[in-house]
Design a protein that fits this description.
This protein is α+β, with helices and mostly antiparallel strands and about 160 residues long. The protein has one domain. Strands 3, 4, 5, 6 and 7 form a five-stranded antiparallel beta sheet that branches. Strands 1-2 form a two-stranded antiparallel ribbon. β3 and β4 form a beta hairpin. The longest helix is centred in the N-terminal third of the chain and has 50 residues. It is elongated, with a radius of gyration of 25 Å.
């Protein structure tokens, strides 16, 4: 075998290895970026539930002075604040909750959605007549579901917070 033939073979092997390394690097970077978006969505949705599950700022907030729309008073669900929150425009609620993704939350007990001033709060996909919804009708790349416990009329109920992008 001549020196030139060996050099061509070595070059082809090296070029192939280089291309494989580039492809693996691109795939790894893409995976890490999408994983980072999911983690970011999780953290923002958790922070949004923390904002909701306090008394808000100011404590007795209304549509004109709300800074943080907390829905609790004395660590219990306040239906007046819940109704105020329901009546705020959706995009304004997203800004108050520091979200750039879509969201909705419901209250449930024994896996049944409760109608507490409304069946849902946030993005409107709930059928108000029977308090049901289907997540399959949404288009999303990432979906986070946060489950938090709330005291309502001397009972613990679940707040199910959904956020997606």
């Amino acid at each position: 075998m001549k020196k030139a033939q060996i050099w061509v073979t070595d070059f082809m092997v090296a070029a192939s290895l280089f291309v494989i390394a580039i492809l693996i690097s691109i795939q790894t970077i893409t995976f890490l970026e999408s994983n980072n978006e999911f983690e970011n969505l999780y953290l923002k949705s958790y922070h949004a539930t923390n904002i909701l599950l306090n008394s808000g700022n100011p404590d007795n907030w209304n549509e004109t002075n709300v800074v943080m729309p907390g829905i609790l008073t004395n660590n219990r669900l306040n239906t007046s604040k819940l109704l105020l929150l329901k009546n705020l425009p959706y995009e304004f609620k997203k800004r108050l909750l520091l979200l750039d993704s879509d969201f909705l939350f419901v209250f449930q007990k024994n896996d049944e959605i409760l109608n507490i001033t409304s069946c849902s709060y946030g993005y409107n996909i709930i059928h108000e007549q029977n308090c049901s919804f289907n997540l399959q009708q949404l288009q999303y790349d990432d979906l986070i579901i946060q489950k938090r416990l709330v005291l309502y009329e001397q009972e613990l109920i679940e707040m199910m917070f959904y956020a997606w992008q």
